[in-house]
Fold this sequence. Notes:
The protein is mainly α and 66 residues long.
Amino acid sequence: MVTAESVEQVVEQLSPEELAKFRRWFAQFDADAWDAQIEADAVAGKLDALAEEGLAEYRNGQAREI
């Protein structure tokens, strides 16, 4: 089984070029995982309360442009 500690040990041994390549890969991997989680939460209705709160503030004139 691969552990976080074993991954850490391998990452510490990467050359600067390979570390840069790994960083790019991991950043995309992490972003994709985040997007998938947000999408799953939205489909499951977990964000409905937040959306309704924002819409209610907008309707009541409590929203402002950012």
